[in-house]
Amino acid sequence: MEVFILGTGGMMPLPGRNLTSVLMRREGDLFLFDCGEGTQVSLRKLNLRWKKINKIFISHTHADHITGLPGILMLSSQVERSEPLTIIGPPKIKEYVESSRKVLDMYVNYEIIVEEIAEPEKPGIVYEDDQMVIRSVPLNHSKVCVGYILEEKERPGVFFPDKARDAGVPVGPFWSQLQNGESVELEDGRTVLPEDVMGESRKGRKFSFVTDTAFVPELSKEVAGSDLFICEGMFDRSLQSSAREKKHLTSRQAAEIASAAGGIKKMGLIHYSPRYTEKELKNLLREAKEVFPETFLTRDRMTIEIPFED
């Protein structure tokens, strides 16, 4: 699993700082979280196969999180694309996509599926397959806004060939069945169970994406145990009153959420106010690390690996 930071800015793009957008690559799937202005530039510079993006998850319909979306939709029509593109977000995202297509007279030669989250004020599953679940969690912003949590389901334990041989399981399809969690019946009538030849199931990985919200203590429970927590840290502590008024987080508040959650391996700050120069971002980092030492600053076009646990 790899996470690519495509943009880290809030409100307006700056030279070298696109608006907020994060891409995840997992087992051949590409998931995009928000699509701020400049998303295409970073995709191109990172040489990512943007036409393979499966799903786009939008946190809310403020301009700095969706202005890159029309360009992505039009760009995808310039190449051969047979798979549909699904866009998931809170209410208004469907209206935005449809009005953009109409006003821009957009040529689209593939299917676009827009799914609005029916109850964004409640946590809920927005996507699930046999390997993972993606949930939305309610945030507290000036417009209906959600965060997203991707959590892999448990993986089968390690397969031990020696145990399989000792149990009399011949090499071949039976081994695959056992590794897939299926029991097998041998010619002598004995049944061999997966747990007879495999170790304990292994924990999957967890990724959380939260941006544009006032301080919500309940978030800690939702993001607990994240291998990577990407969270907005728009202001420093001196602007806490402004953060409260505009319903954003200071970097220290983001760290308080991470610290209270428990089990978070690392947190990357994102969605910086344009008032901070690149050098001044170190103040956001310093204040966050006082509370949660495993904090780092995300940067445009940064790549972050999320490995499996041993």
Would you write up a description of this structure?
Helix 10 (251-261) runs parallel beside helix 11. The chain has 11 helices and 16 strands. The longest helix has 11 residues, at 93-103. It has 310 residues and is of the alpha/beta class. The strands form 3 sheets. The protein has a 7-stranded mixed β-sheet, with helices on one face. A 7-stranded mixed β-sheet has the order 7-8-9-12-13-14-15. Strands 10-11 form a two-stranded antiparallel sheet. It folds into 2 domains: 2-155 and 202-305, Ribonuclease Z/Hydroxyacylglutathione hydrolase-like (Metallo-beta-lactamase, Chain A, 4-Layer Sandwich); 161-197, no CATH class. It starts with a strand and ends in a 5-residue tail after the last strand.
